[in-house]
Structure formats: C-alpha cells, structure tokens
Amino acid sequence: MKRIGMIAIVAVLTLAGCASQKDTPELRLARATEVATIEFEHGVFDNAVDRAANIALSASIVTLGEELKRPTTEADKDRLRGILRGALAEFMTKDAWMKVESETYARHLTAAELGDLAAFYRTSTGKKLLTVQSDLAIEMSEAADKIFAENRASFEKRVGEEVDKAFPELAQGTMK
After folding, report:
1. Residue 17 and residue 22: Cα distance in Å, rounded?
2. What are the residue boundaries of the structural domains of the chain, listed by start?
3. What is the Cα–Cα distance from 6 to 27, expressed in whole angstroms?
4. How many CB atoms lie within 10 A of CB 8?
C-alpha cells in the first residue's frame, strides 16, 4: 500500500511539472522579453534602426539636394544616412527597443505562444529567419514598389476618377 501511495505522489508531481503555467501578464512579459532578447542578439534591433534611417533618408535626400543646390552624390547619401542613424540611435536605444517590443509581444501573444516562438527562434530555421528577415522585408518591399510603379498610371487614373465622383467639388474646373 505504501508503494502505491508513493507511485501516486510521483505521478501527481510529474503531471504538475507538465501542466502549463498560468497565462499571467508577468509570465507573458517575461517570455516576451526572452523573445526580444533573442531577436536583439540576432541583429533585429540594428536592422530596424538601419531601416528607419533609410526611410528618413528617402524622405530627406531630395531636400538635401535642393538645399545644396546640386544633385546629391552617393557620398552625400552615405553621410546623411550616417547622421540620421546616429540621431535615431540617441533615443532608439536597446533598452527602449526591448521595453516596447516586449510589451507589444506580451499584449498580442499568450505566454505559451511566446514560449513556442522563443523555442522556434532557437532552431536552425528560426535562427536563419532572424538572420534574413530584414533582407526579406526589403526584398518584398522593393517587389511591391515595382508592382506599384508598373501600375502607377492606372492607379492614379482610377483614384482620380473615384475621388472626382466622391467629391464633385474637387473635380477639375469646378473649384472656385
């Protein structure tokens, strides 16, 4: 009888260890921080700051040329990109990034899902995804830009026609 009791206790303790943890905000944040740390270690943060600098560059390079009163060169672009990245890095720090990313993940994913994501990132496929995801995003964005460029005229025509219908006061010749 004593032996059966011992087996029952071992079984209960084993099952308790297998039971999933309660999905609390604290556990979500802890697991989200783990995911954010893995991403940071694989360069996701640096890639995000680089992308932000490139977006800022796209928005400001024409203005730089106008201010310089000459076409910009690749050296001008590189110099401005460096300035923009440096300025971004002053407030977009690792700590700020980790806080925002962890809190965002914790709001949208359960503790179990975050645990699964961290486990996936530790696999060879997960590590590869972390390494190439910035390149994938850029490549897909460039492909989308190309599709838009190929269809720009029809897009502008369609939008123009629909805007004229929706806002007749804006239609050509009717503005006073």
Report:
1. 12
2. 22-122, 124-176
3. 32
4. 10
